[in-house]
Automatic annotation (TrEMBL):
InterPro entries membership: CHP03086, DinB/YfiT-like, Maleyloyr_isom, MDMPI_metal-binding
Coiled coil: none
Name of the molecule in the record: TIGR03086 family metal-binding protein
Mycothiol-dependent maleylpyruvate isomerase metal-binding domain residues: 29-129
Domain of life: Bacteria
Amino acid sequence: MTSPLIGGAELLERAVGYTLGSLLLIKPELLGRPTPCRAWHLKALLRHMNDSLAALHEAVDSGHVGLQAATGDPAADLVAELKDRACHLIGAWTATQRSTVSIADRQLTGAIVSCAGAVEITMHGWDVAKACGAERPVPNGLAHDLLELAELFVTEHDRPGRFAAPVPISKDASPTDRLVAFLGRIP
């Protein structure tokens, strides 16, 4: 079996495809609903996703990611903006072979950045579906690949700040449930 790190752009494309399906569930009246991301409502999650996609686009375009979040309020229609940004992101990552990306004083490979982006995009796609009251499991192959990566990327240092503690779950659980539980969400 090949490591998911080798196909970073392809994995990112699969993550965006899954998440675009979750974005279709959003209705304006749901924007205030809580998400599995502690203390966040759906509109805040969408803003965060917008910032994340902008950072990933910056990484592929310039080879550098600034650490400042976008200022101001996103466009009135957050969902339309996210869909547009996601599609442009895939085009940029598949058209460019970015070998390294600078984030603050660190140099990372483009594959690591795109794979970390795939984990985040997919998990937030799952969060969006949950906030909308829908069950949208991550496809098994994608969840399996992302779990391998999440176990590399998410350390105890990241908890409890960026991720909650892992949720205990059976080793026989589905790949989606194992991924979700590892990232501190209740399957």
